[in-house]
Hints:
Number of domains: 1
Number of helices: 7
Order of helices and strands: HEHHEEEHEEEHEEEEHH
Structural class: alpha+beta
Strand content: 15-25%
Largest sheet: 4 strands, antiparallel
Radius of gyration: 21 Å
Low-confidence stretches: none
Oligomer: single chain
Mean pLDDT: 89
Number of strands: 11
Distance between the termini: 19 Å
Strand order of the largest sheet: 1-11-3-9
Amino acid sequence: MATDEKLLSIISQLWRVGFHTGQGESTESPETDFRHHPFGSFNPKHAYAYIDRVGYRIPTRLSERIGQEIAQGSEEHCRMKRPRPLQRSLTPHLDCCPHSMNNVENVSKWRPLQSFVSLTDNLQANTGGFEAALGFHRQFAKWSQQRPPSLQGKKDNPVIIQGNGLCKGAFTPIRPVEDREVIQQIQHVPCRAGSFVVWDNRIPHANARRNEDLNQVRQVVYVSFLPADVGVNQRYAQRQLQDYINGFIPTDQWVEFDKVAGHPKDPDKDELYNFSPLGRKLMGIDPW
């Protein structure tokens, strides 16, 4: 799926209409023109594959039961008021830091659109599915400038955290209190099996807090592409390709490795994949 021609075509069309590519630029300011970005001109038909992950969400009751079984008899269980479930939801967040995402020297990649292919129907809310604040990218610039700080620590001596301090690397939580106006905009996005779901990386998103469907596991394949004519993406693609050649597990914001243990090998990889001509370009093996 990461090298599928049809999926790339969809993303290319959305890049062309949703972001300035170097032709017909607007004179509007970044605050009023959501197509603005600092990464320069790029051909929307040239891309790199971003190797992501497969995601699934089992029913919450099953997750809680398995978590309880795992915790039984452990020392940690004795200290816990409630055992941790096997899975928890991914609460509302951004996969970028609003306060530094336009600093081209401070990001590892530019992924303007995120996406997944749904392998199962997910038509009802509260069934572990995708949720998003639709259209939020149009107000993102103004919101990021006016976003209130967090107050942490003791009430009589609070610590004010703002700007980059509100981010955890490339992950930015949407706070229930300070960002409640954003939380109120987040809604379930229904989709059927086979749907290609795409969202701007400036849109807060999540998966549902619970999966109340007792009979189905929500399953998706995350598929993303990076504009290839962008320097930071060219460097990222080369690192990704080298990890692939060396048989390493792909790394990014979802994977952290012990500095002592080093970068682990992929135990299931024993030979190189035979990429199509398009796939070779998407992986950075052949030039565009």
